[in-house]
Amino acid sequence: MKTIAGNPYLRKKNGKFLIDLVPIDDFLGKFETPIMIFLENKIRENITIFKDVFNSIFNNKKFKTFYSLKANYLPDICKIINSERIGAQIVGLPELKLALKVGFPANKIIVGGPYLPKEVIEKSIEKQVKEIIVYNLNDLEQINSIARKFDIIQDICLRVNSKKYNSKLGIILDRNNLKMLDNIINKNRNIRITTVLSHYSSQMNDFDQYEKNIQAIAENIKNLSKINVKCENINVGGGFPEATVMPKNRLEKIAINIKTTIDNSGIDYERIYFEPGRYIVGDTGLFLTKIIKVGEDRWIFLNIGNHVCPKFARCSLRFYNISQINEPHKYKTSIAGILPTDQDVLAKNYFFTENLSEEDFVLVSNVGAYTLTFSNRFPYSFPKIFLVKGNNIKQIFNPSIDHDISII
Prior knowledge:
Elements: E1 2-4, E2 7-13, E3 16-19, E4 22-23, H1 25-28, E5 35-39, H2 40-57, E6 63-68, H3 75-83, E7 87-90, H4 93-101, E8 109-113, H5 118-127, E9 131-134, H6 139-149, E10 154-159, H7 175-187, E11 191-197, H8 207-225, E12 233-235, H9 248-265, E13 271-274, H10 278-281, E14 285-294, E15 299-302, E16 318-321, E17 331-336, E18 345-352, E19 361-365, E20 384-389, E21 392-397, H11 399-402
Parallel strand pairs: 5-20, 6-7, 6-13, 7-8, 8-9, 9-10, 10-11, 11-12, 12-13, 15-17
Antiparallel strand pairs: 1-2, 2-3, 3-4, 5-14, 14-15, 14-19, 16-19, 17-18, 20-21
């Protein structure tokens, strides 16, 4: 038995290509490509590994996981994740409504982003979410005002600037902002600063990146102590790559190094939060597509493109010629999509089969995170989307009925 793309749920067995326990011909023989497929068992496995690794390094009381809904907000995917008893990190009102609808308890939801309109704050406080994440100190007074109306004290997470490449996101706790924060805290009694959050980057596979992120947290905790603010919790964000890119042994090393760096920095905390998104769903999604044209200089064109597989998603894409799966994939090939622009390039000089034939089926793996988030319908409709668990197939999106995947 041979696995594909390092994913145990994509494999060849007894001459058949299986998606979990479903022969791939069950899809190719019944449905027109492109098709998108998600693997329920891989989602659950990824969550289990993530929790087991960090629980072994920290402990159950100190370690909390919040799934980043922006990675993939399909309701069926969110229901699976919620059933694994982890929390949710959301950015806007549509996500908050979805998280509550699929069953995430409000006290396991953290809410916030660069833009916090009044309706998001009101709904968050009304439902008594765990924390509101603040990127801008100016939002604190409005949060306090709404919290006072509901007669509660709202816990606040400060999203600080990680100082990566002159990042503009997050609060810089310099002398002026510390003075401003001190004044806000003294005047507003319905907010409580409980957590410091720093998010360094995406697709982080190098411990130096995690170390710099922790250093940013430590520095800002020290700055907050100057105005007598002691945070109970630290939030190191997400940034983990796909689980097949970061296997369990690598994740364990990262977790140990994170714990060691925190201990060496002298950070005193009650709980540590993580916000994995890509790690949970990234390698659980795949496209089944086909070659619609073979061009010169080993260029092939697939019947998907950046409208459903956007570069902005930063996926670790893997391409396999399913029609020639037993042939070596060692010949440099460039892969384009179907948008009417020369910019629709999915990969350049990717190792693929020597023979390039129109109508050959191609599997594209690691598309579970952010592809739908950053997708658009121009100029084609979305593909059918299926959920596979064992030998069961469930269609979770039908473009002729559902039309689009907006959560609004």
